Batch of 2 targets.
Target 1
Amino acid sequence: MHDYSSLQKVSPPTLFASVNALNGHLAQIREELNNNQRRKTTELQIDRFAESMEEFILEAEPIVNDLKSMTKDIEEKLKLLILYYGEDPNTIKSEEFFDIISSFSNSFEVRKKADIYLYKSISK
């Protein structure tokens, strides 16, 4: 039997909000870099920070885009899973859904152990 207790701690809305925040922060960095490029800099001004941030954007943007894609996929699959178990994804929170699954699993495990104990005591 699987341990589903960790599923109760998963908060897809929090995950989605975090990924959206990362995307927003990247957009803000990109905007700041664009503003920085418009300003004239003298030869005496060396702005290594802007160059570093451009490199960071080049590395981080594909990762955040992958995260956005994965969260969209998770959201769609979660809705399908909730529908599969006969719940309405528009009315039940994912945390509540996983709590139901965990509760059922725990009850099933308790009942299974009781049945095994009963079977062993009858078999003697």
Note: The chain has three helices and no strands.
Target 2
Amino acid sequence: MKTLKARKSLVAIAAAAALTLSACGSSSDSGASSDATTGTVATATSGTTATSSDDSAAGGAGSSSADDSATSEASDDSSSAASSDDSATGGAAGSSADDSTKSGGGADGLELETESTALGEIVVDGDGKTIYVFDKDTKGASTSACTGKCLGLWPLALTSGTPQLKGVSGTVGTIDTADGKKQVTLDGLPLYYYVKDTKPGDVAGQGVGGVWWVIGADGAKVTSPAPSK
């Protein structure tokens, strides 16, 4: 009887020990699991942080690249604009120079030369248009006697530069017009055209009103009557 009780006691002790060992093992496994979980979270967090850090660095580099690209494009646009302006600045300067050449200078002076006509060798301009003098003008005067309606039929012989003589005797000069232009003179007499002379060599104005005359190569007015048509 005592032996049986002793055995039951030993069995109970062994069972208790087994339970204790089982509880310790479970706790250890739980700790390991917890550690593993913690490690996984830590690893994941670390990986996320690293990834975030890498992405941030990449983003910074991308932003820097985008900024550099924008800066480069802005610089190119600025250069293009400057070139256009220069370009644009260079085109305006050329136009001004051309206008200046057209408005004056010795090369643009009215040319007086001679042409063979029905009245002999007379003075014409570089385009062959006949030149006239007006008896009502005073030699050496600083103004023309032809004004108002007179100018509608007898346009002034103007020049934008120094007038030139080719084969014509006499002294060439200019006088100022009312609007600031230059009328050519020959031996002190203002010179004119006649509106009814339509082509080179025409002398339709000869003797009109007994006061308008063509000019000979010697610089003197020609008073011969106009040839009949």
Note: The two ends are 180 Å apart (CA to CA).
